[in-house]
Amino acid sequence: MMIMIAGPYRSGTNNDLKLIKKNMDNLESMALPIFKKGHIPMIGEWVANPIIELAGSKEVGDAVFKEFQYPVAHRLLKKCDAILRIEGASVGADQDVEVAKSLGLKVYYHINEIPDVK
């Protein structure tokens, strides 16, 4: 399966780049365990951030950033098979889960819920 990892990215950071990086590191910490289970990990920001930069965003949270961040993730979810919602308050991650549910994707809340590929 291709599994999107959803959780806090900007939430609770007040757009502080060090705190955003900490959140991104937390999201990315799930990528290797998902891969070791035999799946393909995906994080929306891996795709969205280069698009946001190329579209001319000058800072995190500006109008260009907002134009692309969530739509990229939601479009990407249409290619995923499941979503892993990691802990932490995040309106965006909660929206991702709702989109995933509307698409009929599996929703996991802990890495141990994800089956190993045999």
**Proportion in β-strands:** 5-15%
The parts where pLDDT drops under 50 for at least 5 residues are: none
Largest sheet: 4 strands, parallel
Shape category: globular
What value does the Rg take, in angstroms?
Answer: 14 Å
Q: Give the strand tally.
A: 4
Number of helices: 5
Secondary-structure class: alpha/beta
Amino-to-carboxy terminus distance: 12 Å
Which series of helices and strands comes N to C? EHHEHHEHE
Mean pLDDT: 96
Q: Percent range for helical residues?
A: 40-55%
Quick description:
The protein is α/β, with parallel strands linked by helices and 118 residues long.
Explain this structure to me?
The two termini are 12 Å apart. The protein is α/β, with parallel strands linked by helices and 118 residues long. Strands 2-1-3-4 form a 4-stranded parallel beta sheet. The chain has 5 helices and 4 strands. The model has no long low-confidence stretch (mean pLDDT 96). Helices cover 47% and strands 13% of the residues. The longest helix is centred in the middle third of the chain and has 15 residues, at 63-77. The chain has one domain (6-113).
Topology:
Layout: E1 2-6, H1 17-28, H2 31-36, E2 40-42, H3 44-54, H4 63-77, E3 82-85, H5 91-102, E4 106-108
Parallel strand pairs: 1-2, 1-3, 3-4
Sum up the structure in keywords.
118 residues, alpha/beta, four-stranded parallel sheet, 5 helices, 4 strands, 47% helix
